[in-house]
Fold ABC transporter permease.
Amino acid sequence: MTAASPYLFYFTIYSFLGWVLEGSYNLYNTGTFRKEGFLKGPFKPMYGCAPLLLLAAQAISLPFPLLLLLALIIPSAVEFVSGWLLKGIFRKQWWDYSGMPYQLQGHICLKFSLYWWGLSVACMYGLQPLVHFLYLHVQQAWIPVLPLVILLFSADLLWTCRTRRRGLKSLELVEPLELGEG
């Protein structure tokens, strides 16, 4: 468990920071911090996955220009796959770029891909050294807390899936009636 410990720490920190980033963006645009996400808790797993994939690419000592290209591709790919899966499984689209130019199925668009690229580069070369430094200083406290964090993530995921699936079942019951009322 110790070898995965820093990566689970990074995932947790970046997922939480993603929640803060989206909430701040929503506060700026709509006046309210709370933006519905897939999970109920204060975490956005997409923001945890992309940095881990970028850290893996960085760890294998890829050339800098290739890392810059991956900093554009990986977050966009994570966002596209996440959006596609969420829409396919839960029949809901949590974000929609379909009204923007250069978009793909409403899941990604060039404008936000460029934002993610800038944030990814800043994350890899500015924020990650600080997050790693933080991990080194809290490592002794993190390791005993890690099972609780995994339990909380798992509970949030299970609760979210259960409540969202319930919502789908109620939609399935309502939709045929609406179609027949025509």
Residues 5-181 form one domain. Residues 173-182 have pLDDT under 50 and may be disordered. The chain is about 75% helix and 0% strand. Residues 8 and 150 are 9 Å apart (CA to CA).
